[in-house]
From TrEMBL:
Superkingdom of this protein's organism: Bacteria
UniProt protein name: Uncharacterized protein
Length: 130
């Protein structure tokens, strides 16, 4: 599935399909594309995404950071698109991801909240949306 199709599943439109990895949906939820390798299962009922915005410097980073700040400040729910790369080591090193054969899967049954945000490090805890 294309990343733009994954965003559309949540009623969200990227500002730029070449580099946007976040958007706010029609229902005022933050929709973010998140790398599968940075998820941890911390409890039976949740999955937690842990990362730093400083890990990468792609074109969408400023937009992503601004959306995280807004969602944290305003308490917006978060929806996840799971991104998976054939070259996770490039992702971990903060390299350019656009030509790595990535796949995108919208997790329409998950709802999340930002539980930590210090302007760099962030954690988003997801649970099943009942």
């Amino acid at each position: 599935m294309l990343i733009s199709e994954a965003f559309a599943k949540f009623g969200a439109i990227q500002k730029n399909v070449q580099w946007s990895v976040s958007a706010v949906s029609e229902s005022n939820e933050l929709v973010v594309s998140l790398w599968n390798q940075f998820f941890e299962k911390r409890s039976k009922d949740t999955m937690t995404y842990i990362d730093k915005v400083s890990r990468w410097s792609g074109a969408g980073n400023n937009e992503f950071t601004a959306y995280l700040e807004k969602a944290f400040r305003d308490g917006l729910p978060v929806r996840a698109i799971i991104a998976k790369s054939k070259q996770p080591e490039v992702i971990a090193a903060g390299g350019a991801a656009s030509n790595l054969g990535n796949t995108f899967h919208p997790k329409t049954d998950w709802i999340g909240e930002i539980t930590e945000w210090d302007g760099d490090k962030f954690e988003i805890e997801f649970r099943l949306d009942k």
